[in-house]
Each structure stands twice: as structure tokens, then as C-alpha cells.
Amino acid sequence: MSEAIVAAVAAEMTADESVYLIGQDIGVFGGPMQSAKGLWDAFGAQGRIIDAPISEAAMVGTAVGAAMAGSRPIVDLMFAEFLALTMTPLALEGASVAFRTRGEVTVPLVVRAKCGVGPHRGHAESCAGMLMSFPGLKVAMPTTPQDAYSLMRSAIRDDNPVVVLEHMSLLHGARAEVDPTIEVRLGRAAVRRDGADLTVVASGLMVQRALRAASELAADGIEAEVVDLRSLAPLDVDLVRASAERTGALLVVEESWPGSGPAAALCAGLLDTPEGRTGFPVRLLQPPATPVPFAASLETAFVPSVADIAHAARTLRSSLRGTVTA
Amino acid sequence: MSVTETALWHAMVEARAFDQAMCRHNGHWHEARGEEAVFVGAYADLSPDDVVAPHFRGTCAVALQRGASPDVLAAGVFGVRGSGSGGHWRGDICPTPGPRSIGMFSGSLGTSVAYATGAALHLRRTSPGAVAVCGFGDGTANSGIVAESLNLAAMLGLPIVYVCQDNQYATSLPSAVALAGERVSDRARALGIAADDVDGNDLRAVRTAVGAAVARAREDGGPSFVHALTYRMGGHYMNDPETYRTSEEVATWAERDPIARFQALLVAEGALDADEAARRSDEIHARMEEIVTEAKSRGDDDITPSTSAFAEDAWTDLRSAS
């Protein structure tokens, strides 16, 4: 997935001179976890790869200013836990500009941020809920190399600020060929596995775990449909609703904190109907409301596992037996 | 293109007239009286290709100076029919946002310094010779993002001039207390940024210092910092009890009023006739009073909300509305 993201950045930088990249250690070093591999050689001499000091607020702040003036900056923020340092320029203000000027001034800005539990111990916080709280800010979270390429390209071409959350357990995971002609619009979820018995909706690493859980469930005769949100903002509530109405039950699995976040936003969206209720039961599987713990054993317990997802799915299915559903 | 000193006197009087009319008719206004030489002088010699990011105290005056209609500005301040943002945002701190004009998009101070720095980065990449001029107060000078921005500008050699409009008070906290160190300009010097300290109530001094800094930036000489010491004659906002300073102090600074001072100079040098100046000043004040009262009395019947914050939807809303 990492190479697909870099390939999309390189393709857009080649196609559009207004695109530049700024971030820490993205020069000859090649970016943290190789997030900018090869870009220095291709674009460094043009001054379009800016190796930045540890100044997250100014990296994003200058990018907002450059974007309003006509550039299309990409900020490699390294880790999503640094996002909180940038929220005034990025979210409170940058994401408000199009509304406040009625589209006369826009902020075409992409912020790349790595997150999630995984091989890189620490830095797991995605801060997804914080990002989703601000109107005008888009948030994408790819889970496949193809989506990583296509969503990054859509993000760079978008006239709104977009945060691309790059899950560290997926960045250097399964490899796959990427078709650069495939378009993926921001705000569109995808069905990763068809099933008739319940819907499991997830994002990031939880999609991969939901798919593994679905395989286990299939052995028991339960066919789970797995939906990958791909974008946390806007949320594709319609696709999730249509899937859950078809299967009759919805399990929401999240790695990010409970409270305000993808699960809560999805539930609010699903309840926004003329009837004021869903026609299917909804269960949430989320970490506890604590910071991400450090010890490997604690971190493992914090995040929903494949077994947790399979168990929650079975429980949800069994609760439906004997009841009449819509 | 050279702006005459008489035109700059006129710009200062217009700035004061708009400001004072707002003081009379808008309880939320932040008065800029006494600081005109800084913001009129700093933005006097720029071209339309240059980026301006004025301090909020004086931002409407800079918009006027760059050709904005006082009628539209006043409507924007009140959020009524004819507002430049269609009532979507505060016209007092963000009067004319655009690719070459930066305003405040919340009440947070300091971020616009980063925006101006980013705009300078864009200019260096796309429009060699163009510059950004960025104003901010002594209070904002202490914001972390300002330090980050200055360092980035120095590191990248960006074409930007930072103008610290030091009116000696961050609301109630004196800059003499809050700006640790001898001179705030030393913070820029420490980063290798060319810095100057000027009398902010002397229009010529501000214009000369900023002019030299702008010329340096146009020739790829990197960023500069101008510290202009002035004085906020009014409160931070209307109805500020001003318990933190003495009337004697205010009276002392009233003696140094930048407009009276510059006007006396022009009259002494024969560039302006005293009676003519008084007559024109009265005319400008009466005109601004008329414009501001008219705008305040306007309805907001043509103002309809955009329903989405996303750029493509804002455009769609705009298209469907027109």
C-alpha cells in the first residue's frame, strides 16, 4: 500500500506542478517508513520536496496558506498522533474556508498520517473522531493498494482538505497490482465480501480482521457481508444501510476510540430516517475509552481481534433467532 | 507605480473615518485608532500580485487601501445584504479573502502568520518577484505558530515581510511585560532574519522600513521583520473598561497621533493645505458615517445559507442560487 501511495503522489506531482510535498525526513532519507521513497530523486531538485523541521502547526499552516494562494500541498505529518498539534489551521480554519467564502477560496490540501496498532510500536492513535468533528474536512482510510492509489489521487485532486490515514499494519502488507485508471471517489464505501446473514462494517485494519472473522463464521454456516468504509468523512451511510437492510443485522467494528468517531457517526446517520429508527439491530465493537496502552499484551486486548469480531457476530446472529425482523 | 504621500494621508483619514463610524454603530468593533501609520504605511507600495495578510486591527483599512468598496466592507461587518461572503463569515476580521488576501478564519491569532508564510512559499514557486506582507500584534508575536513560521521562512528564504504592529497591549496585558527580552525583533535576528525597529506612529518611518524589506524580498533576499511601536488609543473592544492603564498614558500617546503628525508635516512642507485637509477630512468622515449607518439599517433578506462545508457543494449552492 505504501508504494501505491507514493506512486499516486509521484503521478500527481508529474501531472500538476502546483503539487508539492512537505514533511519531516522526506528528503534523502526517503520518509518515515519509506513514505516518500524515490520522490526526492524525482522532484527534490525542483524544490518540491520540502524537508521540514519539527513544526507541525506551521507545516500545515503554511500549506493552508499556499493552498489558498493556488498550490496543492501534501503534508506528510508522519503520525496521526501529531494531528492535534495542527487542528486550528487544518480543521477549525482550513476546513471552514470554502464555506465561509462560499467556494470562492478553497484549500486543496492533503495531510498524510500513519496510525494504528502494528509493527511500529507506539504512535497508534488515529484521532479519527477528532477529525470527523469538523465540517469541511474529509478523511480517507484505504485498506488495499488499489484504494491507496486511487484515494490518494482523489485526495490530491479534491478542493477540500483531506486527511489520508495510513494504517501501519497495512502499509507494508499484502502486495497487489494497481490499475491507475480506476477512480475511487472520496465518501464511497465498498463491499469486500458478500453475505446474507449480517453486515460487518469496519475501517483500516479492522476490515482485514473482519474478513478473517467472516471466513471463520462461514465454517459455522454464517455468511457475513463485510463493508470497508474507505472514507470516514463523508461516511457512506447509504451503502451501509442498504447492506444491513439486506442482511438484517449490523456489527460496527472500530479500532478508534468510542464516543465521537466513525461508529457513533455511522449510528447517527443510520437513525436519520423518517421513522427515526433502523429496521435492523446494531451492535458496536470498539476499544475501551482509554489511551492506547503500550505493552503488547495490553495493546492486543485493547483492539478488537478476529476472535472478538467472530464472537460478536455470532452473538448478534443468535439474538436474532426467534425474532421477526423487517 | 508610486503612491503619493497625500494619497497615504487620504488612506489614513479613510481608515480612521471607517473605524470611528464602526465604533459609533457596532458594539463588537475592535478600534484601530492610533495605529494607522503602521497598516497604511506597511501596505502602501504593494502590487495586486503581492499577498497581504494584515493584522485584524486595521484589516478593513488595508482592504479600503487596496480598492475594496466601503459599502461592501460595512455590509460584511454587519452580516447584511451586500456582504462579500453572503453573511457566511465575519467581515471585520476577514473582509476580502482571496488568493492574494488573507483574513482570519476563526478568532485564533497566529495562524494567519503561517498562512502568509505559505502564500510566500507559493509566490516563490510561481511568481518570482512577488512578496507577502504579514501584520500581527504584539500579543500574537508570542504564539507558537509564529515562531515556527519565522523559522520556516528563514530556513527556506521566503519572500515575506513580517510587521509586528505593537500597540503595547494584548487586550489587557502590556507588551512590555509579555514580550520577554529586550526587543521582539531580536527573536527574528536570532533566526538570521533582517530586522528593524521603527516608530509606528511615523508613516514615513514605517513605509521606508517595510519598503526596504519588500525590495529585499523581491530580489530573493529572504524574509524580514519590522517591529513598529505604536499605541492603541481605544480599548481592545468597545466597552473595554481599560482598568489596566492610566488616562495620563493615553493622553501622552494622543499627542503622537499618527494622522495629525503626518498632516502637520505635509502642511509644513506645502504638500497639503491645512484648511483643505480639514475640509476633506470632514467630508470623508461624513461619507463613512453615511455608508456605515446605511449598511447597518439593511436587511439580510438575500442571505441564504450554504448547506455543506465542502468546496464542491459550496460551489453547487452558489451556482443554484445565482
UniProtKB/TrEMBL annotation, chain B:
- Needed co-factor(s): thiamine diphosphate
Which UniProt keywords are present, listed alphabetically?
Oxidoreductase, Thiamine pyrophosphate
**Which residue ranges run through the membrane?**
none
Family matches, as InterPro entries: DH_E1, PDH_E1_Alpha_Subunit, THDP-binding
* Chain residue ranges for the region called Disordered: 295-322
Q: Name one Pfam family in it.
A: E1_dh
Whether Oxidoreductase counts among this entry's keywords is: yes
In this chain the Dehydrogenase E1 component domain maps to 24-299
* Name of protein: Thiamine pyrophosphate-dependent dehydrogenase E1 component subunit alpha
